[in-house]
Amino acid sequence: MEHASAVRAFIKHHYRHFNGAALVDAAEGYVQFIDHGGKMLVAMAGAMSTAELGLSLAEMIRQGKVHAISCTGANLEEDIYNLVAHDYYVRVPHYRDLTPADEHELLSRHLNRVTDTCIPEEEAIRRIEDAILEEWTAADRAGERYFPHEFLYRILRSGKLEQSFQIDPKNSWMMAACEKNLPIFVPGWEDSTSGNIYAAHCMTGDIKNVHTVRTGIEYMMELSAWYSATAVQTPIGFFQIGGGIAGDFPICVVPMMRQDLERDDIPLWAYFCQISDSTTSYGSYSGAVPNEKITWEKLDITTPKYIVESDATIVAPLIFAYVLGS
Hints:
This protein is an alpha/beta fold. It is about 50% helix and about 10% strand. It is globular.
């Protein structure tokens, strides 16, 4: 990892104050936590897959620096979209200048915009729909049920998409996760393109049992089982990219078990870092300072806590490079 070592040296030399220093502190804390045997859950909000975070996250997974992921349904599916349709994506660098008519013209071209990047509907979304519908209906007929990420694992393992790959699969974090059978938790999957498509196929009768795709409550139960089994062996850390449900859902597993299940043996999260550009206002969860989580019995007074108030598309790859270069 010579390249990562060079990035790490650059960061240590130049990032000495303010958010730069916070980045170094968080990255060094991550390194020490893993070096002492800790396990790390990464929570991923926003559109980080479309930002191609897989370029660094996939290697973090392969190197054993990430042990579980909580992400939105969008991040889950958009890594696969990029895998099979990368060459059809359209970048719009001057997106701030777009008029409503310009936006409608993108719609007419079946280009779904995410900030400066447009996802091609036919080449990405519909290509995956065909593959995943085949898995959904087969499971439905067999009376089997799987989580959203398990259906995508099944597709990746089947090899049916390989002829459509348009990037090196080593840059897909879902491919890396699949190879390691990494635990993934996807709260609010219904609020994703695949979730919408699934609802439509349930309504048309293509899928008879709406519960063929397992639910968010079952994800919380699965997360509880993973946390309980892992925490007896090693401390567990929480690295949060962005905010929202991808972060709040998994971090709540600790107070749920301690308070609702009355399991005092469950330890609190042992490391916490959040990358966020949100401000503390209007009851914002994404902008809440880490100490607020002490009141919810998510973090301890002694838990190492870091917050880097910056753009995650810039900060997360730098921290990952720092960790990989240690």
